[in-house]
Amino acid sequence: AMQPPDEGKSPLLGSTDALAAEESVPWSESLREIANATAVSITLRCRLALRSVGSTAAQLLTPLAVIVALLALQQVSNAILASHEEYPEPTPIPPLHKCTTKSPQGCKTVLYGPQGVPWVEQIM
């Protein structure tokens, strides 16, 4: 059987005495508690952010390091390409036969390499 709720208790809210006690708290104390809770929350979030300073710095500095490395590679390639190389006279290439496994003349490999350039001759 259902019993009627006790006096001083609300079936949905529990004790009405606790509600009455909260209502009697002055606003200045409530605001002080809210301000204190906000300060604690901000402090904890700042500490959490400071823990990840290394990863944040890495995320910000890594793209800059990649850009600097790419600019350095560009400067190196510009310096190499700026070196003066004489262009050789073109040599006409005779018509080449179709290369197949059955061709009697065999296959020929065609490479371009200027003559008289030391580093090209060293590679070839």
List keywords for this structure.
124 residues, mainly alpha
Task: Report the helical percentage.
Answer: 55-70%
What would you call the shape?
rod-shaped
- Ranges where pLDDT stays below 50 over 5 or more residues in a row are none
State the strand order across the main sheet: 1-2
In DSSP terms (H or I, runs of 4 or more residues), the helix count works out at: 4
| Beta-strand content bin | under 5%
Order of helices and strands: EEHHHH
**Rg, nearest Å:** 42 Å
Number of strands: 2
What structural class do you assign from the helix and strand content? mainly alpha
Oligomer: single chain
Largest sheet: 2 strands, antiparallel
- End-to-end Cα distance, whole Å, is 104 Å
Mean pLDDT: 76
Would you write up a description of this structure?
- With 124 residues, the chain is mainly α.
- The chain contains four helices and two strands, in the order E-E-H-H-H-H.
- It has a two-stranded antiparallel sheet.
- A hairpin with a 3-residue loop joins strand 1 (9-10) and strand 2 (14-15).
